Amino acid sequence: MKKSNITFRLILMIFLEFAAWGAYLTSLGRYLGNIGFGSQIKWFFAMQGIVSIFMPTLMGIIADRKIQAQKVLSFCHGIAGLTMAGAGIYCMTAGSSVAFAPLFVLYSISVAFYMPTIALVNSVSYNALAKEGKDPVKAFPPIRVFGTIGFICSMLLTNFLHIKGVAMQDSYWQLISSGIISLVLCGYALSMPACPVNTNSGQQSIAEAFGLKAFSLFKERQFAIFFIFSMLLGASLQITNGYANTFLGSFASDPNLADTFAVKNSNALIAISQASETLCILLIPFCMRKFGIKKVILMAMFAWVFRFGLFGLGTPDFPGVLLFVLSCIVYGVAFDFFNISGSLYVEQNTTTDIRSSAQGLFMLMTNGLGATVGTLAAGAVVDAVVYNAANPSWAKAWYIFAAYAFVVGILFMLLFKDPEKARKQA
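Above: the chain sequence. Below: its structure as tokens.
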């Protein structure tokens, strides 16, 4: 491994990692609605959370104890790519007769193997940086920026590219393109620096033998609080992914708003959120040093309040569309300041023998339990105040989500202690 090129190699890996996700994540609901599966949208997004309950932890355990993390990463992307491309090809061949079961099964297998890769690329990146003598807190965020850039590039490609006169955001091509990107990363991951594997064969407890030692972190009060709030905040993660595009599309029923940019190019508007991520990632090292982990996470929690509240207040026409733009801008703080700083918190406060497992546990709580409960709860709220209401109101749904995020932020502020202050007191 050459010291001079490791940064570029990690940048390319991170770019591909999130380009595979961005190809369909924010536009899938739009396509599903086109083929008559609008009422099943919540289950497609909930499945990402359901598989994240166990798959990231399981793959993390394997990476810690059995197989090098870069090889596990390659395997996961191979399966994810084949099945996601398979889902798109099935829709292509089925034409107007797409059945829910085969599409959902192929999609579910794909996301089951994709979701662990988010934690695995962190572990692979941290290992590569450590081998070069670099500090992950300083070196990783600028590299992680290119993951967001990859996500944005895929979103814009899906929004603007038309195949046979149909935009990718309205067709199965978004699934095929995601699968192709994952297959490329399947091969590329094998070129990453080898990660350590704990192969000690001495006497071990059952928890140690199966790599479940990371769950012992719940015995520590601060880690237990951190993981519980990871779940509570994770409930917010998939709400706008699942419903923002649907919400913006609902304005098409108004002739005065149907031709506005926000309605016709909703995926491109939402891409502003990922552009904000790019800038906010660069702020993380400064904010971590200046404010500490607790204040950084609090910034994220209250940013979710503004994210949802501004959606409730906005409209697609001018000047109301500016509120949508502001919502997309604060998303960078809402998403990055928790997900990246939370990952770094786990990295800095765990030992090497459970690090991949601990990252998987963090994913379990946020993108697993939290995202599953949040997606299904959000679906119930939308059903109650939009689809099944006498007076449908998307604004009321967004205000309910904002109120939830506010309560979570207040509770976290009261219960979680800043690690730096706790060390000084000790």
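The domain at 6-195+211-425 is CATH 1.20.1250.20 (Growth Hormone; Chain: A;).
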